[in-house]
Amino acid sequence: MADISVPIGDLGPREFIAEGGQGRVHRLTQFQLADCPVGVAFKEYKPGATFVSAGVEAIVRVRSSLSEPDRQTLDRHAVWPLRVVKHPDGRVAGLLMPLIPDEYVQSGFSSRPNGGAAPRAIRHERELQFLFVDPDMADRLGHQRVNLQQRLSVCRSFAEALEFLASLNVVFGDISAKNALFKVGPTPADCTVILVDCDAARVTGTAAGVSQLNSPDWDPPGKERDVATHATDVYKFGLFVIRSLSPGKTSSQSRDPERVDPIFDRSGMEMLRRTVGDDPRKRPSITEWRDYLEIASTFGRPTGLSGQDRRGGRIGSGPARQGIRTPSATGGMEAAKQNTSTEESQGGSTRIGWRKVNGEWVSTN
User: Could you tell me which residues belong to the region Disordered (predicted)?
Assistant: First the structure.
C-alpha cells in the first residue's frame, strides 16, 4: 500500500489562507503531489485540537486505495484529504488537501442598493447557504441568481456525491450550509456541488478522525443525533432540498417539506416526507434521490399546478414517468406561466412560487 504520510519538514514555503476552529489552512507554494493535478493546501491542526489519528489516516486511505477512475470521481465530488502530515516524532500535524477549484469561488462586486454605498469587491466560496437567501437579497449582495432548474441540478449533483461516498462505506456526517460548495451554469452538467471539510467524514466501522458534529439547524431527530449514519446523511440532504428549492424568509431553518409542494409531484413529496421523518428505516436511499432528481434536472421545471390540478393531473406519462411533472405531461409551458402561484401561506406552511423571466425560472419570493 502506498505511503499516505508526509513529513512536515518536506512541505516547504506556505501562505496563510484561512483559520477555523480546529486548524489553520496554508497554501503550499512549491510542494506538489503526483496524484493531485491542482495546487495543494496544508490544514495544520491547532495545539489542543481533538482528533483520532487512526480515523484521520483511515479517511486518507479511502482515496489512496481507489483505482485512478474512482479517484478522479472522488476528486470531482469532494476536496478529499490527500496525505497525513506528521511531526518528526510521528504525531499527526495535519492533512494535505487539494486547493478548492476556482469555479466554486465567487468573485465580483456587490450592487449599489437604492443609491447607497458604492459597490464593493467580493471574493468568497460559494457555500450552500447562498441558495437559501431571498433572490433579490442575493442580487444586492453580489451573488449569482440561481433559477429553479439550476437548483434541481445542484440537488442532483449533491445526491451523486453522497451516493458515491456511500458506495465507499463513508458517512459524510456534518452536512451543513457551509460544508459543501456549488457552482451553476447554462446546462445541468454545469451545476455541481463539491464537499469540503472532509476530514470529519468517517468510514463505517471506524472512529471519525474529527468529531462528526451536527451543525445548528441541521441536527437529525432524537437519538440519531448521537451517531452519524447513512440515514442521517439522507435526512440532512432532505433539509437541503427543502431549503435550496424554497429560498427566502425562514428557509435556512425550515424542516417543512410542504414548502416545496408546488415543485414535486405526489411521489416526490412522499419521498421527501419520508426523508425528513423521524423513522430512519423509512427513509429512501440517496440513490433513489439521485434517480428522481436526474429526471427533474434533465427535463426541467415542474409546471406549478394549483392544488386541485396537482391531485388530479396526469403523472406518469412520457418523461414524467418517474414522478416529475414536465410540460409534455401537463399541457405545455403556457400552463406553467398561467398557473404558477406566488408565495402563499396555507396551514402555517410557506409555499414558494416560481415564474419565468427571460427564459429562466426564478423565485417570486
Answer: 300-365
Q: Which domain CATH number covers 197?
A: 1.10.510.10
- In angstroms, the Cα distances linking 232 to 69, 223, 239, 251 are 28, 11, 11, 20
Number of Cβ atoms within 10 Å of the Cβ of 159? 25
Domain co-membership, 95 together with 133? no
- Domain enclosing residue 174, as ranges: 128-363
Pick from 130, 142, 128, 151: nearest CA to 352: 151
DSSP state of 166: H
pLDDT score at 40: 97
Whether 184 contacts 241, CB under 8 Å: no
| Partners of 123 in the β-ladder | 107
Residue-level pLDDT at 243: 97
pLDDT at 298 (0 to 100):
78
Q: Is 314 helix (H, G, I), strand (E, B) or coil?
A: coil
pLDDT of res. 332? 31
The pTM score is: 0.82
What is the rounded distance in angstroms from the CA atom of residue 300 to the CA atom of residue 354? 13
What pLDDT is recorded for position 364?
Answer: 64
Which portions of the chain are predicted below pLDDT 50? 301-350, 359
